[in-house]
Amino acid sequence: MIAPLAALIRYHEMKCGTEGSVSPSRASEEFRLLQSIPPELQKRYLRVQKRHSISAVVPVERGVCTGCHMRQPPMVTEVAEEVYECQHCSRLLYDPDVAYEHSVG
Ligand SMILES: [Zn+2]
Question: What is the pTM of this model?
Fold first, then answer.
């Protein structure tokens, strides 16, 4: 199992990226990633993705959502492990430093 955050970012890249066409290996990777993403987070992602498309999942920088450029309150709503919801635009936020650690490990 990989962390929900890492799985979400990878899944989002596959959904919105331009890489390759649908293939059996891709389908199985999507399935594998979904197993690491809590159902509640999947629901939220699908809802936000409909509205914001490619910018549905964005990093937060110095407490500011890079999607809508609004500052987040000190206590942001945690959706799942290390995944937060923007209080202004509902995009899913993550700390880029944490995401980097996951991708290395
Ligand atoms: Zn925002």
Answer: 0.86
